[in-house]
Inverse folding.
């Protein structure tokens, strides 16, 4: 195998997704965190699925100083939290259970119950809204391919005089992962996209779910992209649609520059993940340098057959020198499937087999290692 092929397969291996989950310890909102995000022009978030490429480069900046702040709700005296129009005795509330997110003159009210993040309401100078049946925004952990759904009801006031009564459904799904080109031109990989779709229907009478005949309501669609080592999204798109005629009410997008995630100074959980990513990058650079100077062909030659395989995969190889050899079979998303443990062997001809009969028909990656030099081969299971 030529060095160029080795480097290509090596880059393929590194690109396999290693980040496909949001969890409480790394992604839950924290009081005291302040984010600076840039409002940029909207771009279609694209389809769901694996190995997506999102190119958000060269987007026009509309507002480069948009602040989002998370805080604890105010205290009445020193014993009662006030979240919207609801009071909670402090003694009954755990740390970080109640959170207020403030941006663009609007306060959003959140409550964490067990592993579920609920939105209980929001208010600004024009609208005051309470979710009488809260929306479930997130349920940790959330893995790629998973989704959650909840119904909600709300009531409130517009301009202090007009009653608001709505109901609908909130669906949250980790529906895509891949690589993203940021507005700054930098590339992040892998990133996980979480998409929320909120349907909004008017409830003409409080407690009633009847609506005007033919009214399909509105739909608020939000996509957020997360990267390993960052508690909050790195990019976000928002789009509101009138479902009656499919017209767009508004759309916008926000870029959270990674260098402006200043909370990381006090976020040891995510700092540890970033250090892990940096260490992996450093090891990868060292490994690529090694591949450039020593190829596997200098140590061994290997014949792999049949490929595609239905049952037994044969590995026939010749060592040109003493070497420690291992074979590992992985799914295309990086999960270990089969393994022939590393063994030290003298120069000579050897024969190994891997039983693939129980594997699902799809592509796999066979990693061949000899004296710390490796290549990856694509194996097709029929």
């Amino acid at each position: 195998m030529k060095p160029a092929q080795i480097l290509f397969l090596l880059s393929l291996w590194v690109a396999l997704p290693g980040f496909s989950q949001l969890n409480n310890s790394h992604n839950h909102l924290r009081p005291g965190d302040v984010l600076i995000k840039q409002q940029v022009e909207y771009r279609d978030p694209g389809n769901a699925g694996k190995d997506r490429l999102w190119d958000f480069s060269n987007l026009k900046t509309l507002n480069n100083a948009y602040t989002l702040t998370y805080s604890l709700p105010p205290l009445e005296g020193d014993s009662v939290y006030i979240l919207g129009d609801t009071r909670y005795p402090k003694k009954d509330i755990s740390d970080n259970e109640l959170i207020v997110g403030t941006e663009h003159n609007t306060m959003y009210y959140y409550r964490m119950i067990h592993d579920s993040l609920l939105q209980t309401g929001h208010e600004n100078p024009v609208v005051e809204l309470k979710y009488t049946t809260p929306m479930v925004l997130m349920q940790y952990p959330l893995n790629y391919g998973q989704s959650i759904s909840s119904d909600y009801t709300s009531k409130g006031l517009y301009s202090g005089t007009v009653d608001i009564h709505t109901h609908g459904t909130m669906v949250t799904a980790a529906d895509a992962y891949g690589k993203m080109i940021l507005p700054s031109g930098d590339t992040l990989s892998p990133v996980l996209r979480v998409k929320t779709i909120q349907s909004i229907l008017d409830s003409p009478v409080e407690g009633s779910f009847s609506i005007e005949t033919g009214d399909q309501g509105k739909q608020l669609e939000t996509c957020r992209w997360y990267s390993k080592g960052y508690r909050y999204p790195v990019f976000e798109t928002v789009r509101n649609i009138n479902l009656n005629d499919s017209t767009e009410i508004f759309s916008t997008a926000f870029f959270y520059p990674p260098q402006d995630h200043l909370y990381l100074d006090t976020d040891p959980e995510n700092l540890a993940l970033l250090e892990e990513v940096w260490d992996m990058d450093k090891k990868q650079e060292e490994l690529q340098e090694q591949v450039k100077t020593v190829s596997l062909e200098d140590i061994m030659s290997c014949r792999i057959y049949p490929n595609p395989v239905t049952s037994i995969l044969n590995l026939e190889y010749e060592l040109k020198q003493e070497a420690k050899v291992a074979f590992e079979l992985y799914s295309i998303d990086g999960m270990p499937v089969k393994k022939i443990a590393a063994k030290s062997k003298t120069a000579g001809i050897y024969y190994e087999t891997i039983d693939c009969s129980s594997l699902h028909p799809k592509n796999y990656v066979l990693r061949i290692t000899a004296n710390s030099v490796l290549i990856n081969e694509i194996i097709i299971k029929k």
Remarks:
- The first strand starts at residue 21 and ends at 22.
- Residues 1-17 have pLDDT under 50 and may be disordered.
